[in-house]
C-alpha cells in the first residue's frame, strides 16, 4: 500500500516563507518522479513544480524564482521551499508521486496581505 503524506503548511504573511515536505511510504520507486500541485477554493488543481529521477525540475510560471523543489539524497523526502509568498499562493497543496500516480491528502497554505 503506497501512502503519500504532506506536512509543513500553515499561515504566513505576504513576503514570508514556508517549506512543505512530502514522504512516500510503501514503495521506494514511487519517489523517482514527483510533483507539487495546488488547488484554491473554486478553482482547478494546478501544477506547481516537478522533479524527475535525474533531478530535472520544472515550475509553473507563477512560482518561478520564488519556489524551489528538491529531494533529499536518499530520495525519501520531497520538499517545496516557498519564498516571497503572495496572497494568491493561498491554496491546498498536494504532493503527487508521478511514478505511482498517487496523491497525498494535501496541506493548507494561507498567505495574508
By DSSP, the count of extended strands is 11
Question: What distance separates the N and C termini?
Answer: 41 Å
Helices and strands: which structural class?
Answer: mainly beta
Order of helices and strands: EEEEEEEEEEE
Account of the protein in words:
- With 113 residues, the protein is mainly beta.
- Helices cover 0% and strands 52% of the residues.
- The protein is built from no helices and eleven strands.
- The protein has strands at residues 3-7, 10-13, 18-25, 34-39, 45-51, 57-59, 67-71, 77-82, 91-97, 102-103, 107-112.
- Strands 2, 4, 5, 6, 9, 10 and 11 form a seven-stranded mixed β-sheet that branches. The protein has a four-stranded antiparallel β-sheet with strand order 1-3-8-7, with no helix packed on it.
- A hairpin with a 4-residue loop joins β9 (91-97) and β10 (102-103).
- The chain is globular and about 40 Å long.
- The termini are far apart.
- The model has no long low-confidence stretch (mean pLDDT 96).
Essential attributes:
7-stranded mixed β-sheet; 52% strand; globular; mainly beta; 113 residues; 4-stranded antiparallel β-sheet
Write the layout of secondary structure elements.
Elements: E1 3-7, E2 10-13, E3 18-25, E4 34-39, E5 45-51, E6 57-59, E7 67-71, E8 77-82, E9 91-97, E10 102-103, E11 107-112
Parallel strand pairs: 2-11
Antiparallel strand pairs: 1-3, 3-8, 4-5, 4-9, 5-6, 7-8, 9-10, 9-11
